[in-house]
Amino acid sequence: MKLGIIIPCYNEALGLDETQKRLQRLLEAMIEEKQIDKESFIVYVDDGSDDTTWEKIVGYRAKSTMCKGLKLSRNFGHQNALIAGLMQFRNDADALISMDADLQDDITLVQGFVQKYKEGYEVVYGVREDRKSDSYFKRHTATVFYKFQHFMEIESMQNHADYRLLSAKALEALSEFKEINLFLRGIVPMLGFRSCSLSYTRAKRFAGESKYPFIKMLLFAFDGIVSFSVRPLRLITLIGFLLFLLSLLGITWVVIEKFILGNTVQGWASTMVSIYFIGGIQVMSLGIIGEYVGRSFQQGKGRPRYIIEKEI
Ligand code: UDP
Ligand code: MG
């Protein structure tokens, strides 16, 4: 089988040589053992880096025809860089594996992926055995996120990032998903097909720093909810309905106070509390609705998810 490996890179010059060295060695060994076709390849997708990442990729290509490069015209973000590579090369291989550039994913798992593909699986997920290599903070926010996703009725693979194999057939299906706010790990389970997962221990970043600072991580998590579930909108309706019921009680109380008991001056506290409470909920609800409207706006414009500047 002909295998392709897709690696999105954003300012990865520091550690890319090591990644290239190890991957090339791995693929050569697999070709030697006839596990994969000799035309198998590695694609580095340069996601608008402003360091020497692209120069490095050009260098690898000069040394080995096994390496290919795709340069995006600017930084489009991890998910878009990944889909660029997958879509551009989906017809050139029997299956593509996506992997990060920082060697956090255990590359020896590639052999397992290929094995599973040969057994007839179209989608193979790389799942982290534990999160020991993560900071305390990332570990716990991840758990909260999965719980929240579950509450929002979104099915997703826990502890699976974007290390996976997709067969040409699965990639063909993926090409039908035109969403702008991409959250690949939520879409892949929707593809269906025969799938399985392999577990591995995720290492620490080999070199350089994470390209997912806290804010980016938060926005990504937000995408993972709002792109898959309309439950937040339903919750707003529910809250609105409950408040309406409460207000009926309130009205009854006011009427009794005024006409039967005759105490009408008091009530400053309850007025203030309800103004702030209802006002807060209204603004928050508008925000959530706006988020969905904004997304349909973006989708409606149908702008490209990525722009390719060069391919080598
Ligand atoms: N990445 C990218 N574009 C971006 C941000 C990140 O292509 O805008 C790549 C990055 O080079 C790496 C992968 O996405 O190969 C995952 O990023 P990172 O390792 O920084 O994330 P973390 O492992 O910390 O979640
Ligand atoms: Mg990483």
Inertia-based shape: elongated
Rounded mean pLDDT score: 88
| CATH topology heading of the largest domain | Spore Coat Polysaccharide Biosynthesis Protein SpsA, Chain A
Number of strands: 8
Q: Give the assembly state of these chains.
A: single chain
Biggest beta-sheet profile: 8 strands, mixed
Distance between the termini: 23 Å
Ranges with pLDDT <50 over ≥5 residues?
none
SSE topology string: EHEHEHEHEHEHHEHHHE
What is the name of the CATH superfamily of the largest domain?
Answer: Spore Coat Polysaccharide Biosynthesis Protein SpsA, Chain A
Computed CA radius of gyration, to the nearest angstrom: 25 Å
Q: Strand percentage, roughly? A: 15-25%
- Overall CATH class of the largest domain: Alpha Beta
Query: How many individual domains?
Result: 2
Ligand list: uridine-5'-diphosphate, magnesium ion
Q: At CATH's second level, what is the architecture of the largest domain?
A: Alpha-Beta Complex
Which strand order spans the largest sheet, edge to edge or round the barrel?
A: 7-5-6-4-1-2-3-8
Structural class, judged by helices and strands? alpha/beta
Q: Give the % helix.
A: 40-55%
SS summary, helix count: 10
